[in-house]
Amino acid sequence: MSDPQQIERLLTEYLALAQGGRFLRRRRFWDADEPMPILAPEELTQPLIGWAAIEAYWSATAAGVAEFRSDCSALTLNVLAPDCVMAVFRQDWRAQMRAGSDLGSEPLAASVRVSMAWRRRDPDWRIFASFESHLEAGEYARSLARARAAQIRASSS
């Protein structure tokens, strides 16, 4: 299997772990030897640096989310070095929070751009940094409007 196919397969497996709240299992896709991994979720103002911060975030997310679904599209791989690749892709996610959540019971959804750095660790590739950012403001506003319109249509049916 070529490196692009391998990274795409690993990315698909990684994203699928969010379904069913298996966020902590994502750790096996990360480079265990990385002393300072970085995860920058789009909803946080500061990046998470280090395993303790990342695992605390994954645990809190798993505790607060009842259902989660994520899709990846427009994947581009940029080879930075023979053992380092930057994967840039669009991630569309939808979440249903648990009852009593501070975020309410309405479904949440967003489309984000992800830049995820992978390092070759034979025989596989491992993540050492991942940065999420909102799409441009107009696209983000349109996606929120579409999601709200779908909610209104569903509630009036």
Tell me the total number of β-strands. 6
Helix share of residues? 25-40%
- The secondary structure category is alpha+beta
Helical segment tally?
A: 3
Terminal CA distance reads 47 Å
The Cα radius of gyration reads 16 Å
Give the strand line-up of the largest sheet: 2-1-6-5-4-3
Please write the string of helix (H) and strand (E) elements.
HEEHEEEEH
The overall average pLDDT, rounded, is 85
Structural description of this entry:
The chain is an alpha+beta fold and 157 residues long. Strands 2-1-6-5-4-3 form a 6-stranded mixed β-sheet, sandwiched between helices. A hairpin with a 2-residue loop joins β5 and β6. The mean pLDDT is 85.
Which secondary structure elements does this structure contain, and how are they paired or packed?
Blueprint: H1 3-16, E1 38-40, E2 48-49, H2 51-64, E3 65-81, E4 84-97, E5 108-121, E6 124-134, H3 137-156
Parallel strand pairs: 1-6
Antiparallel strand pairs: 1-2, 3-4, 4-5, 5-6
